[in-house]
Every structure is written in C-alpha cells, then in structure tokens.
Amino acid sequence: MTAATDRGLPSAEELRALEELAIDVAAEAARFVVERRAAELQVTTKSSDVDIVTVMDSRSQELIAARLRAARPRDAFFGEEEAADGRTDQAPPGTTEPAGSGLTWVVDPIDGTVNYLYGFPQYAVSVALVQGDPTVPGEWRPVVGAVADAVAGRVHHARLRGGAWTRTVDGADEPVHVSDATDLATSLVGTGFGYDAAKRGRQARALAELIPHVRDIRRGGSAALDLCHVAAGRLDGYYEMGINPWDMAGGWIVLTEAGGTCTGAQGEPPSSDCVIAAAPGIAEALTRAVDSVVDLVRHP
Q: Using CB atoms within 10 A of its CB, is residue 96 exposed (0-12), middle (13-18) or buried (19+)?
C-alpha cells in the first residue's frame, strides 16, 4: 500500500491507544489459554488430520472478539476460527450501525495450536489492526500489532511509526531491533511447514535446496513468534509458504517497526503464497534464495 493510504488513518495519539488495546486484549487471551489449557484440550481437525483446532482456540477468539467489539464497534473483525471465510463486517450484536471505520482486527487466537496441544512452549495470541482488505494480497497493511508469547508472558508490540517493543512480565517496554547480519551464509533462518502431507514434502525438498546457503534453520511452529524473533534479532530471517493473514499481521508490523523487511516471493507482496522476513542486510540474498526454490512448493 502506498503513502496515500495514510488518508483515513487514525491519528498518532489514536494509534497509541489502539496499540494499548491490542496489547491488553492479546495479553488477557494469552493468560486465559495458558490457565485453562489442562482442562480444555478437546481437539477437532480442519483441513487434514494434523490441522487441529482446540476448544480453547474458539474460546480465545470469542474473548478477543467480545473485547474488541465492545471497544471498537465500527471496526470489522477477521479471525481464524470464524465460520465461512472468517470475515465479519456486519454490526456486532446489540448495534444497528454497520462496521464502517475502514479498519479490521485480524486475530489468531492461538498461533501454534499443535505446540499448544503438546505443551511445547512456543505459541502465541496475535491481535492486529489493519488498513485495507486483509483477504487481498497487496491491498492491506497492519497499523497496530500485539503478539503475546503466551508461556513467556511477554507481549511484542508495535504501531505504525512508533517503533517495536517487548512488554516484559513486569510491565516495562524494551525496544527491539533486527540483527546486523549481512551474510546469508552465517545467518540463522526460521521456516515452517503446512498441514497437507504432499505440500510438506515439497516444502522439505525446497528446504533441502536452501539449507546449504545459510548457517542453520529453525522451525518454531508459530509464524507470529517467528516474525517477532526476526524483529528482536533472535533469527536473522524467516520464510514460509502457506501462512494466512492472521498468522502474519501482528508480527509483520513488529518486524517492520524493528527495522526489518517483509515481502513475498518474486516481487510479490506478503501473502499466503509466501512470506519472507529479514534483517535488511540479508533481505536481498534471502529473497533470491527463496525465489529460487518457491516453484518447487507451488507446483506438485
């Protein structure tokens, strides 16, 4: 999106307040899913037997939606666990005015659900406010984001032109910035894999082609946290083919406000096709490397 899209954007003061709302809601939902995990692990499947959803995914989203709709009734809502395509642009219950702010809350109630199921401490709640249509690649951007690292109790957060921060368990805000990596060969790069078995196989073949060009690979299982790890310099880069707007929205703005880049493959914007996140010193090299293997994943 171009600078012209700043028209209709909330003021700097409003963005600050919206960032705090996102932080509060993400942190509350993160505490909720951690505290209730042992009692609420009923599981169903979505696109495949390994693509799961727990009762707590739905309950976390209900909590988030209720908080956001109470505070911002004219905003649209786009959550992973919504019915149909996930988008709700109608007025929330009890109101008569349709959502008309031009802004949409894009929410992942538990990013890293398989990790959550197994008790592996790498899952998050992501709450982002975006401008534009999050279902159309290149037609939207996040303007506020909060990614709550549920087990660690930290919240990574940012707003447009406000820098990137991590709110610690004692409530302090610490600035974060991407690494100073300049050589892809000595860079630590994160990635992830989809739920479809055939696609995972293609992703593995693409990774086999790419891994000789980097220091090492990490697979954390939460795209939102992976993006925040790049923002904080714990990873130098990250790429994944097959994540959704709710996976990327919160981490995307934390990353870019921390000085990183977020693009798609082969000159495209970030999308479900591909997301490439990087410290600026390796962005061009990582993009070239991913561009060289992306067709191995796209085409069976």
A: exposed
Question: Taking the complete model, does pTM exceed 0.70, yes or no?
Answer: yes
| Per-residue tokens: 83 | 């019915």
What's the token pair of residue 163?
A: 């820098």
List for the chain the helix, strand, coil content (%; round to 5). Answer: 40, 25, 40
Residue 271 token pair = 């999308």
Coil, strand or helix at 42: coil
Phi, psi of 228, deg, nearest 5: -70, -30
Q: For residue 128, list its beta bridge partners.
A: 106, 145
CA angle, 187 then 246 then 30, to 5°: 90
Spatial distance between the Cα atoms of 30 and 34, rounded to a whole number of angstroms? 6
Mean pLDDT, residues 86-100 = 41
Query: Tens digits of per-residue pLDDT, 257-285?
Result: 999 999 999 999 999 999 999 999 999 99
What are residue 164's DSSP bridge partners? 158
Closest CA to 190 of 152, 238, 261: 238
* 253, two tokens: 């703005």
Handedness of CA 25, 165, 270, 181 (dihedral sign): negative
Looking at residues 93-115, what average pLDDT do you find?
A: 76
